[in-house]
Amino acid sequence: MNGESSISQRFPKVVGQLVLMYLLYRVKYFFLAQAIIYTFLFTAAGAQNENWDTYMAKFDKLPGSVLVDLGLYETAPNKLYPNLVITGPLAQSCNGQGLPDKEEIDALENILDATGNFLTGVTPKILAGTLTYDCKRVNYYYVKDTIGIRNAIARMYNRNYKDYRYAITIRSDPEWKTYRTFLYPDEETHVWMENDKIITKMMEQGDSLTKPRNINFDLYFKADTDRIAIVVYAKSKGYEADISMTSKSATAPYEVILSKFGLVKMEAINSMAEELKREARKHHGLYNGWEAPVDRDKLQK
Q1: C-beta of residue 167 within 8 angstroms of C-beta of residue 138
Q2: CATH code for residues 188-300
Q3: HEC string of the chain?
Q4: Along the 301 residues of the chain, how does pLDDT read in single tens digits?
Q5: Which residues pair with 43 in a beta bridge?
Q6: Cα separation values, 30 from 10, 51, 174, 221, Å
Q7: Where are the domains of the chain?
């Protein structure tokens, strides 16, 4: 079972994100920043800019952690890599939520590194993501052909990792459905990921987030009539509106900042962002994120 058929919801609040993400994705070629991972690396498919990001998800009743290369989405599916290989070690020790114990993370990562290197000698491949869930840690590879892969991986484990059992699934996926609909985050998760980056940065700057402040949302529109419509809606929901600035976007030149006074809390920010994105789409607009001032009193102490 790889979790794809049983995903019930994606969510951010399962076990201490920063520590958990560091432990789960302390990989030699990934750089962790604000619980979000971005990097450029080379694959067997050739030099390619990669954009790695990570989020927590819930599968049935257990949490899982997904690391995914967002950079593949624009070109997926790659018809040269029509087959999917899902493989990785089963943890020998994991907690009640099915996540590997921190003492074993390095060992599991070493096995995944070895598996990737081993597969390079078998077939050209693209690493699309990693799932840690249900006491397993597996990589998702798209490959050109699957001849000999199952036997090759079995030989690798029997030779070098006899103490570990492993999972392996091989199937045709020419449309990259698993990547596009399972690994790649849905819109709700995307919103959370962006919000988490902003909040994490504020906390890293020393803000305790205990004081209310103006939370400012930026939106662009193609026509002033659309901007006026969103302002009317926003004011009915308790927002203040500022239309004094000029957008730098040639296709959406009408900008508005919508502000609401309150605490910077993830659930509240997610709710407001989702609402404003939805309303902006109704009026042919673009939601462009949010910001809030850092608590400078905290920084001066």
Answers
A1: yes
A2: 3.30.70.970
A3: CCCHHHEEEECCCCCCHHHHHHHHCCCCCCCEECCEECEEEEECCEEEEECEEEEEEEECCEEEEEEEEHHHHHHCCCCCCCEEEEEEEECCCECCCCCECHHHHHHHHHHHHHHHHHHHCCCCEEEEEEEEECCEEEEEEEECCCCCHHHHHHHHHHHHCCCCCEEEEEEECCCCHHHHHHHCCCHHHHHHHHHHHHHHHHHHCCCCCCCCEEEEEEEEECCHHHHHHHHHHHHHCCCEEECCCCCCCCCCCEEEEEEEEECCCHHHHHHHHHHHHHHHHHCCEEEEEEECCCCHHHHHC
A4: 455 644 444 444 433 343 344 344 443 233 333 333 333 333 334 445 788 988 877 777 788 889 999 999 999 999 999 999 999 999 999 888 888 988 898 899 999 999 999 999 899 999 999 999 999 999 999 999 999 899 999 999 999 999 999 999 999 999 999 999 999 988 777 787 788 888 888 988 898 999 999 999 999 999 999 999 999 999 999 999 999 877 777 788 999 999 999 999 988 998 999 899 999 999 999 999 999 999 865 445 4
A5: 46
A6: 23, 10, 27, 37
A7: 4-185, 188-300
Token pair listed for 130? 């990693």
- Tokens 């659309």 sit on residue: 226
Task: Look at the chain and count its residues.
Answer: 301
Tokens describing residue 4: 């794809």
